[in-house]
């Protein structure tokens, strides 16, 4: 009886040893499923990493665009202050370095190596070929409008609209600039107000409305300090609307009328893009 009991105690251990010695294999289907699950997990992890990289780059680009916009708006505001302190003779004084646009567009911001100024666009080689381009029709009118010195009320209204624009409250800015133009159509700030009104639509990608307003600026305020900027944005708006002939005509006109300026360089860059894409 004691021997039988001992044998019974040994049987579980022997069975475990036999099972351990037996070759253990996973069915092929189960092995394939397991590998697939592991691969899916690896891909999901890679996607999470890539998504994090994209979000980080998007934030960096947005910060760059915001700084660029703030630089442009700061410059415009300083120039307005200079105009208030000086004598206004029909237009608000500005320089070539004045804001070309609030946000260039949704295209990547070009990098400028070893450049002393972050807001200067990349200088590209000129287009060597000569083209015969029909320029845009000249706006009606015999010359610049005689715009008077702005009053305190005009200045306050313009500053409110400009503040909304600076804070990227584009709907509020558009309403404020429209109201300003309704009340003070002959203000010294009217060309600027019209330009920034059009810009609020351009930056929100309503290119048709922006194009109409930029054209109105050329028609109503010929010879204004915003004429070159408006002509450039007319070309950009036509470009975004895929109206290649009109875009090329406006941009070539910018090059011809404003040589060796930031306006010309921006126009040149977009013309080069069009040429490389085969649009002319």
Describe this structure in words.
This protein is mainly alpha-helical and 280 residues long. Helix content is 64%, strand content 0%. It has 9 helices and no strands. Helix 6 packs antiparallel against helix 7. The protein is extended. The termini are far apart. About 20% of the residues have low confidence.
Kindly report the oligomeric state of this protein: single chain
Number of helix segments? Answer: 9
Bulk shape = extended
Span between N and C termini? 105 Å
Q: Encode the helix/strand succession as letters.
A: HHHHHHHHH
Helix content: 55-70%
Strand content: under 5%
Number of beta-strand segments: 0
Question: Which stretches of 5+ consecutive residues score pLDDT under 50?
Answer: 22-26, 86-135
Structural class: mainly alpha
Cα radius of gyration in angstroms: 33 Å
Mean pLDDT: 74
